[in-house]
User: What shape does this take?
Amino acid sequence: MSEKSKIEWTDATWNPVRGCSKVSPGCKHCYAETFAERFRGVAGHPFERGFDLRLVPSKLHDPFKWTSSKIVFVNSMSDLFHERVPDEYIMSVARIMAAANWHTYQVLTKRSERLASMLSGILRPFAAMHHIWWGVSVEDRKYGLPRVCHLRASPAAVKFLSIEPLLEDLGKVDLRGMGWVIVGGESGPGARSIEPEWVENLLMRCRELGVPFFFKQWGGVQKRRFGRMLHNRTYDEMPSLLRAEIPDSATRRRTASLLELPFAVMEDFGSRPLVKLAMVG
Ligand code: SF4
Assistant: This one.
């Protein structure tokens, strides 16, 4: 967990899962993988197993520990809806988000079919909560646009798109039902280029429907060179926040202890499939 994040559209990150695997062209230069693999083999480091998928139940209670309410990017270093993360574990994350409702949570995935299916099923009670925002990543038409359709068909109250890295013009992308759109170009070594017209198209579509628009960056190999100005200004729009008052620490501790989560603290799954988990209670 990082109580402060450098990501422009969030306050903090929370990673009760670490590691992931690639699914589409947007993953090619995955920043999380690059970061995690730097620490493979470093004993005691959170990423000593590199980018291998791991559940981290010891991090589940972190939102109760923070002393101020935050906007929280859930699993910035993974994908909560990865096929090897069990339904029960996703439910545990959702129950914590529901209980620690003084924070606002941003859940972002590329596994949009599983997201939509779970939001219509066992996650249905959480789909309606306005302090939990459910989003999908979009990078191109072939892989990204079907994700928008899956999200739109879901019952999520607050739906958002992270269109980063934007790899091509998305054309007449249908933004109906979306509550927020983030747009950005790829950054870092080997960054693929972005064209201003692609960004303009998305801004225009957001304006047509009144969807808040957040322009994160132009990107590039050295992203600071190109910054995040569009039309000589920044675009930092977001959905309206429901900031609940944060309870005192004793109340937070009590609330956390009342949550019975079906997980023993098992962090080390090695490379085995994550299908058999120790259940308690
Ligand atoms: S889905 Fe996200 S976290 Fe997973 S490999 Fe792709 S970019 Fe990285």
In short: The two ends are 27 Å apart (CA to CA).
